[in-house]
Every structure is written in structure tokens, then in C-alpha cells.
Fold these 2 entries.
Entry 1:
Amino acid sequence: MRALVRETRLHPANFVLPLFIVPGEGVRRPISSMPGQSQLSIDQAVEECREIRGLGIGGIILFGLPESKNEEASGAYDEQGIVQRAIRAIKREVPGLLTITDVCNCEYTSHGHCGRIVNGDVHNDLTLDWLARSAISHARAGADIVAPSDMMDGRVAAIRAGLDGAGFSNTPILSYAAKFASVFYGPFREAADSAPQFGDRRSYQMDPSNGREAMKEIALDLEEGADMIMVKPALAYLDLIRQARDRFPDVPLSAYQVSGEFSMIHAAAANGWIDLERAMMETLTSIRRAGTDFILTYFAKPAARLLT
């Protein structure tokens, strides 16, 4: 009877699993702060994607760790970059699996920031060309959706113009429209080797106190051509997910259940304080109930197994 009248339902197709791609072959390197998650070489990522497709999971989002980094983030838009090669391999070996790419620079810059550094600060406008070039290279490699996560002002318009000019007018943009300067990103910085070498990212990521500003940022990204929007992180921002759903009812809406949220649940479960499976499903349900259409989550595989 409970199942019959249940208001909010989860399905594996609601999940997108983040994958971290590294150079080499046969590499499956566990991420110590994220139980069950690993950095994967391209061949191992292909194997992972076969399992993901078999579980009915909605798709993947790729993050790349290049062989080398520099101040120009050149690995981000290199046609033979780690993510570009991974896209081609996955599309060849696991056809039909929805492939999203993270469009950012922090994994590729020697300083770990998301943009070009000028006089010690991230220069917003000079970073836009990098982002557009990265998105075009991902689309050319076969990405289904590009997802800019840098939080530079004007990046959606620059990427949309770049994609259209390169013949990829049908490639959608999933914008990290409301991405907050959050404490919950800690484990990700190990996973993606992307910690800033100086300062922090509060000058371009959002203040967690500002809900009205989040709605403004979402509206601006939609005006610039975003096709889908994201709130990141998820659990501490459920109120803003609901506000976004109410204010933008016809726009596909997602949220990212980030590394710190994932690891926090695992840590509490490891100490016997909570039940892991119940906490996993309860938090995912809350994110869906708040109004999301799909969720980026490291719980995608175990949740999909429970649901099927």
C-alpha cells in the first residue's frame, strides 16, 4: 500500500555517476576519502561504463586528471586530452550511454584555480575562451552534454556561441548555475587532484548565505542559453532546489550530491551511527522530493542495485 501511494519515486535513470579518468592502463586507484570510488584509466572506465549501462543508470559525468598541468590549462582543451580520449573510447565501446563532461580548468592548471591568473587573481573574461574551447573539444569527441562548473560570469553565453559556431548547435549545456563555496568539496580535491595552490575559490563560487543571488545566477545562465541547471551541493541547499523548481518549472533541474556528503554518510555508517543503505536512499529521496529531475551522485551504483 505504501508503494502504491508513494509520492516521490527513485529510479536508476535518475542518477548520473561521476568518474575520474587518469592516464595509464589497467589503473583502478582507490580514493581514500571516498569509499568504493576510484580513479580509473580509460580502459577501466570503459569496463565501469558497461556495468553502469547494465544497471540502467542515467549517465556519467567525466572529470580528467592530465599527465601534466600548466598555467594555461592546455590539457582541458587538447583534442588528445584525457577526457577527449575517454569520450571516444566510451562512445565506441559502450554506445548509448549518456556521457556528460565537466567543463572546468582546476584539474588542468598548475595553480589549481578555475581560471586564468592575472596579478594574483582569477580573471573572469580571459577564462571564457578556455571554457569554450574545452566544450567544443568535448562535443567534437562525442560528448552528449557539456557541463561548465567554473562559475565564471558569461561562460554559458561563450560556450553556446562557441558550440554553435563549431557546428554543435544541438549539444545541450548543463550549467552548474548555483555552485556554492562549500566545505563539502574536500574529498573531491583528492579525487580530482584539484586543490588550489593559494587562496580559495570564494571570489567566484557563491556565498552559502545567498539564496536570492542563486536564483539570479540561474536566471542569467538560462538567458545565456543553458538548457539544464544544477544546484551544488545538494543536502545543505534543498531549500534552493525547491525554490529553483518553483521559479523555473519547465527547466530540467539537477543537483550534485557531492563528495563530502557521500563521505560523511559513509563515515557515520562505518562508526555504526547510521544505517548506510537507509541513509543513502533517504538522502537521494530528499533531493528528488525537493524537485530535481536527476541527481549526480557517487551512490548511483549501490542505489541502482537496491532499486532493481
Note: The radius of gyration is 18 Å.
Entry 2:
Amino acid sequence: MNKKQALPWDNPRFHNWIAVARACQVMGLSLARALQPLDIKPPHLDILVNLFRTPGISQQDLADKLLVGRSNLSMLLPQLEKRGLLLRKSDPQDRRVLRLELTEAGTKLTEEAIVIQTGIIERAMKTADTDECNLVGEVMTRIIRELTTPDIAEQQDTETDIRKKA
């Protein structure tokens, strides 16, 4: 970086992105503290809520939905299973596929955790009026779309790799 080049923190986009990142970090810490009485952590809650919303989801589909590898889930699922919160069952059509479901205890705990999470979200988002809240959601959705769509350089690298393998 040379002396004439602007520093990144002088750029409003950089500064605002850091504010978003800090808000996410503070939200995660707040949620972790609030979930302590239930003896679960935010990654457990992510799993439980997704099983609550999509009973019978496969382990692979859950990993894809949570943007984590199956190995990450493989570490967390046994903890939840051992506590009697979820069941892993073989898919009747394909024994290689594991289907995940909440137990009755898992459903009850998830419902309690959702109340806690919703309370924290409400507390955080009450600082914005409806239009601002909607704008935050729209902008985050555009950011997700931008960062999950390969850019031209990535596409060219992929095409080059394909040609090399052919």
C-alpha cells in the first residue's frame, strides 16, 4: 500500500461493512449467552430450527442449507442425538442417506430456543423502523446473491480447469 492510496477504513463501504460484521458478532454473542440455560449453542440452534422447519431433511441437505461441511455436522449431531433431541434414520429408498428428525424433547427445546432467539432479534431490530428493517433485509439479500454468484475470473478459472482435464 503506498502513501497516496486511501486507507480502507476511510471508505464508507468498508466502515459500514465492519459495522454489519460487528452487529453479527454481537448478535451471536448475545444469542450464545441467552441460550446457556438451555445448554445449547448457536450452531446447535441452527440445526434444531432447521429440523423443526424441515422434518426428515437429509444430513447432506442440512449441511448445504447451513453452509457447512458434513464433517462439521458429524461433530454436532451426535451431541444432540445423545441428549435425546434428534433421531437419525436411514432413508427407506436409499440406505446411504440419513434423515434427521426432532424428538418430542427436541421439539420442546427448539420451541423454547426460538422464543429466546426471536426476542433478541426483536430487541435488535426495534432500533429500525419498518422501512429501514426491510431495506436491511433487501441489501443483505443482494450481498448474498453477489457473493454466491461466481465472478468472471472464477468462471474463467473453472473453464480453464475443465479444459485442462479434458
Note: The chain has one domain: 8-126.
